[in-house]
Amino acid sequence: MSGNRIPLGPFHPLLEEAEFFEIKVDGETVVDIDMEIGWMHRGHEYISEMSSFTQSIYLVERICGICSTSHPLACVHAVEDIDNIEIPIRARYIRTLVGELERIHSHLLWLGLAGHFIGYDTVWMWAWKYREPVLQIIEAISGNRNHYGIMRVGGVSKDVDPSNIPKLLEILDTVDKKMDMFAKVVNDDPVLKKRLVGVGVLTKQDAIDYCAVGPTSRASGVRGDVRKDDPSDAYDLVDFNEIVLQNGDVYDKLVLRVLETKESIKICRQCFESLKTAKGSIINNVKEISPGEGIGRYEAPRGEVFHYMRSDGTNRPIRHKVRAPSYVNIPTYKASCIGVSISDALITLAAVDPCYCCTERSLTITDINQRSNSLDILKLSKEKTEKIRREINGK
Amino acid sequence: MGWKNKQLSKSLWVFHVSGSPCNNCDIEILDLLTPKYDVERLGIKLVGSVRHADVMLVTGVINRKIAPKIKKLYSQAPKPIFVVSIGTCTPSASVFKQSYNRVDNPEDVIPIDMYVPGCPPKPEAMIEAVAKLIGVLNE
Amino acid sequence: MSKLEKFIEEMGDKITRKIDKKRRFYFNVKNENLREVSEYLFNNIGCRLSTATGMEMTYGIEILYHFSDDDTGQYYCPRVVIKDKKNPEVNSIVTIVQGAEWIEREIFDFWGVIFTDHPRMEKLLTLNHPEKLDKPMRMKEE
Predict the structure, then answer these.
(1) H/E/C letters for each residue in A212-257?
(2) Which residues, listed in sequence order, are joined to residue B15 by a DSSP beta bridge?
(3) CATH for A4-40+328-394, options being 3.30.390, 3.30.420, 1.20.58, 3.40.50
(4) Which residues of chain A have pLDDT under 70?
(5) How far is C13 from chain A (nearest CA, A)?
(6) Which of A79, A170, A320, B77 meets the CB 3.0–4.6 Å disulfide criterion with A48?
(7) CA gap A340, A30 in Å, rounded
(8) CB under 8 Å to A261, separation ≥6 — which residues?
């Protein structure tokens, strides 16, 4: 029976790439996994090298819809690193605020989809319902729900109206309450624990070897958070904790994201408070960029976003390199997926948060001989949860 | 065909294909299903296989590697099927105009019946598009 | 003595053209010394390989590695210059850093640089591309 291949994909949009997974199973156990990417390659770096520094910001925003602050932020950090451009204090707070709001909505999105994958559709609906207020705040600040377009080299382009802040803080409070509820659910639910504890473990050594970043590595006990290590914007002015958990399984990744959301709400509150009083302009006018090279990075919801910019003194970069966090996190599947049962494979793949709004909508492609498709995997996953639930309730 | 189309309008089942998007339109589509917008009240359901679908949603600029797969998918779909493109990327390529890896004309890959522009389109715009589609089917 | 100063002292004349900026340290390294430098950075300092950037310049192809030290926020960027644009070859560091596998495959795909001793030297993004591509995707010159 060994060597049964289960295709998953190719639709799996992740920044520039979507992958095609080929899972080899022996009975119920995953023995090997192979990935093919490039389905989403649009040539961002190439286009960016033909556009000006300001145009690049809009372009990199469209790498990923969920990280649409992280990429522009890392990009402007890279340009600012070339010339050591100072940023006004008010702009620093606004950048941090939008970045953290994005983290909250991204983690809620993950929480919802993870719930969906293990058969908790209620969690999906609830998490996405409480994601809406966060989008509302973002819309009030930037004018758009998803692509904000407010980052500029030297500052930001839109200011937060101080008279709006009390109202926005109120909306944030409702999200905070609901996060407490989610934290309680995660702690209390025996089914969730039984389903996720010990599943898809990424060991500390593997996390280091594969150079994993963000929640993926922090759940495995490897510390590393760009906000702490290389603080930019207002991160050295606000108080927050870096959360590191030890086990590296899916449950820890879930807990870590819930706790991180709480920290983000804390940062947002501090930013709002500071914005009430901070005075001054929101942008430093930058006339030209001198020749040189710069590295910018930012802690996106999924880990470190890396941008490298090289300028020759003209208004265009001669090289712009982008590295998204999922790019280094996805190869860790080779370490975490092997040995898990096929019904756990989906949640293990999802645990990295590879922007997988389409994982479960992946296509049944090509080979007629292969009976299994990804929908079966989703069904298997849900059935397992149901089985555990029945066992626990029966006791 | 008119009678058949009228039957379809009662409950449109939607299948979602991503060309090579930035994920944003895809998330807004999923957003439509969740409590705030909840399009299931209009009989719309997202299905997992194109063989069950009445409407195909295409997002993103279509990449040259993915194009044959999308073509194949369209050929697998039961006809009549209506193709709605979500977002500015599919018709005009948006910021990816200079890309070396996109198809020149998305209509060569898949015939598109309806465009919903926007980056990303607001969920309200998408609901309006659906309402218009139902209106056309009922004619 | 900081980690950076110790690193410069240990490496001696293996690293040249040093540029030291705030939290960023760029330097040139020869192809034959690349593995030794990476091993020191990865195992002794405890760096994480962020990524590597390939660049086509007039004088050849440049590969710039980015090693990040997460405790201090310091970036170490070894730069390898390959003069031969026709048949570019570099030593692979996959044996030292497992995470370099995809990064090196991507550079092979974009610029046609062959990494010697890489366990699986095939294209990353244009693998099984439906159209025939006769040159590396990003190379401007033939």
Answers:
(1) CCHHHHHCCCCCCCHHHHCCCCCCCCCCCCCCCCCCCCHHHHHHHH
(2) B56
(3) 3.30.390
(4) 1-3, 8-19, 354-377, 395
(5) 23
(6) A320
(7) 6
(8) A103, A104, A107, A108, A179
What gap in Å lies between CA A373 and CA A330, rounded to an integer?
Answer: 21
Residue pointed to by tokens 């977002």: B87
pLDDT class of B32 with cuts at 50, 70, 90:
confident
Q: Which residues of C touch A45 (CB under 8 A)?
A: 138
Q: Which residues of C touch B67 (CB under 8 A)?
A: 130
Residues 6+ apart with CB under 8 A from A251: A192, A193, A196, A197, A198, A199
Inform me whether the pLDDT recorded for C75 exceeds 80: yes
Q: Backbone phi, then psi, for C62, in 5-degree steps?
A: -110, 135
Q: Which chains touch B (3 or more CB pairs under 8 A)?
A: A, C
CATH of C3-88, one of 2.60.40.1080, 3.30.460.80, 3.20.20.70, 3.60.150.10: 3.30.460.80
Coil, helix or strand at residue A385: helix
- B5 to chain A nearest CA, in Å? 26
CB atoms within 10 A of CB C111: 20
**Confidence bin at C26 (pLDDT 50/70/90):** very high
Beta bridge partners of A300: A303
**What is the tens place of the pLDDT at every residue in A278-333?**
888 899 888 888 999 999 999 988 888 899 999 998 888 998 988 888 888 888 88
Is some CB atom of chain A closer than 8 A to the CB atom of C2?
no
- Return phi, psi of residue B67, to 5°: -55, -45
Domain housing B82: 2-138
CATH number reported for the structural domain that contains residue B101 in this entry: 3.40.50.12280
Is the preceding peptide bond at B80 cis, omega within 30 degrees of 0?
A: yes
Q: Is the peptide bond before A166 cis (omega within 30 degrees of 0)?
A: no
DSSP string, A141-177: HHSSSS----EETTEES-PPPGGGHHHHHHHHHHHHH
CB-based contact A63:A15 (threshold 8 Å):
yes
Cα separation, C97 vs A213, in Å, equals 14
Domain A48-327 is found in CATH 1.10.645.10: yes
CA-based nearest distance B122→chain C, Å: 32
DSSP code at position A200: S
> Testing the interface with C: which of A228, A293, A366 to mutate, by most C Cβ within 10 A?
A293
Given this model, what pLDDT does residue A379 score?
74
Residue C60 near chain A (CB below 8 Å): no
Structure-token pair, residue B25: 């339109």
DSSP chain B: -HHHHHHHTTS-EEEEEESB--SHHHHHHHHHHSTTT-GGGGT-EE-S-GGG-SEEEEESBPBTTTHHHHHHHHHHSPSS-EEEEESSHHHH-GGGTT-TTB-S-HHHHS---EEE-SSSPPHHHHHHHHHHHHHHHH-
Please work out, in degrees rounded to the nearest 5, the angle formed at the alpha carbon of residue C64 by the alpha carbons of C58 and C66. Answer: 160
Q: What domain count does chain B have? A: 1
Radius of gyration of chain C (CA): 16
Own/partner contacts of B119-122, CB < 8 Å, gap of 24 or more, are B119/A62, B119/A147, B119/B24, B119/B87, B119/B88, B119/B89, B119/B94, B120/A65, B120/A145, B120/A146, B120/A147, B120/B24, B120/B25, B120/B27, B120/B28, B120/B86, B120/B87, B121/B25, B121/B28, B121/B86, B121/B87, B122/A145, B122/B28
Q: Which of A289, A292, A295, A323 is nearest to A308 (CA)?
A: A295
